[in-house]
From TrEMBL, chain A:
Coiled coil: none annotated. The chain crosses the membrane at residues 55-78, 98-115, 121-140, 152-170, 182-202. This is ER lumen protein-retaining receptor. InterPro entries: ER_ret_rcpt. Its main location: endoplasmic reticulum.
Length: 215, 10
């Protein structure tokens, strides 16, 4: 475990906590894409299949349980909580996210490390996570005023995989083992998808104005 | 083996 990896996991944890905080305390999911939350729940469900078979460390298992639990509870809140679901903007959150799942599954069936169920599911989760933010970014472009918590959530979510890239570079130079190239590519694509958001987020922070993405 | 791909990340 290196500092980049720990920073990445803590940033990811912070993003989840910010979103849970927003939804649980102010009972609102305005500006939050349910589609992205559903995609992330699927990402964790398909990536952490080994949670019962391969024990790596207490930290690893605890973090997996947190990410699984939080992503599914956020989906539940937005779908079923009697107050929260009223603030869900389903007319704006219209990205057809199954059009993301199908290509990712097809790609995982053709491009993977080993053709086993677990390995294909794991590869699918990497490809899916790379594009999972798209419904949320589309929704932000339609949502005129993005509230701070939602902006912080997306920023932290994008930053975590960026920190993982530094972790992969560090491990490449310091460890005999290596991270599979599929992980590298999916992680870089994922981080690049946030590039324009990061730009506008930084601009709004620098000029101390409300975050707005161009339509 | 040397070329062992790690799967210890989240």
């Amino acid at each position: 475990m290196n500092i980049f990896r720990l920073a990445g996991d803590m940033t990811h944890l912070a993003s989840v906590l910010v979103l849970l905080l927003k939804i649980h305390t102010i009972k609102s999911c305005a500006g939050v894409s349910l589609k992205t939350q559903e995609l992330y729940a699927l990402v964790f469900a398909t990536r952490y299949l080994d949670i019962v078979t391969d024990f790596i460390s207490v930290y690893n298992t605890v973090m997996k349980l947190i990410f699984l639990g939080s992503s599914f509870s956020i989906v539940w809140y937005i779908r079923h909580h009697r107050v929260v679901r009223r603030s869900y903007d389903k007319d704006q959150d219209t990205f057809r996210h199954y059009l993301l799942m199908i290509p990712c599954m097809l790609l995982a069936l053709f491009v993977h490390e080993k053709f086993t169920f677990k390995e294909v599911m794991w590869t699918f989760s990497l490809y899916l996570e790379a594009v999972a933010i798209l419904p949320q970014l589309v929704l932000l472009q339609r949502t005129r005023n993005i509230d701070n918590l939602t902006g912080q959530y997306v920023f932290l979510l994008g930053a975590y995989r960026g920190l993982y890239i530094f972790n992969w570079i560090y491990r490449y130079f310091t460890e005999p083992h290596f991270v599979h190239w599929i992980t590298w590519i999916a992680g870089v694509v994922q981080t690049l998808l946030y590039a324009d958001f990061f730009y506008y987020y930084f601009e709004s922070w620098k000029n101390n104005v409300r975050l707005q993405l161009p339509a | 083996d040397e070329h062992h791909v790690v799967k210890d990340e989240l």
